[in-house]
Amino acid sequence: MRFSLAVAALAPVLSVYADNILVQVGAGGQLAFSPQNITAKIGDVVTFQFQGKNHSVTQSTFANPCTIQTAPAQGIDSGFQFVSPNATQLPEWTFTMDNETTPLWFFCPASHCQAGMVFSINANEASAKSFEVYQAAAKASGNAVAAGGAAASSVGSALGSDIGAATSALGSDIGAATSALGGVAGEATSVIAGGVGAATSAIAGAAGAAATDAANALTGLAAGLTGGANPTGSTNTTGAGFRLSSNTASLFAVVGLTAMLL
Ligand SMILES: *[C@@H]1O[C@H](CO)[C@@H](O)[C@H](O)[C@H]1NC(C)=O
Ligand SMILES: *[C@@H]1O[C@H](CO)[C@@H](O)[C@H](O)[C@H]1NC(C)=O
Ligand SMILES: *[C@@H]1O[C@H](CO)[C@@H](O)[C@H](O)[C@H]1NC(C)=O
Ligand SMILES: *[C@@H]1O[C@H](CO)[C@@H](O)[C@H](O)[C@H]1NC(C)=O
Ligand SMILES: *[C@@H]1O[C@H](CO)[C@@H](O)[C@H](O)[C@H]1NC(C)=O
Ligand SMILES: [Cu+2]
Question: Which residues cross the membrane (predicted)?
Answer without folding.
Answer: none
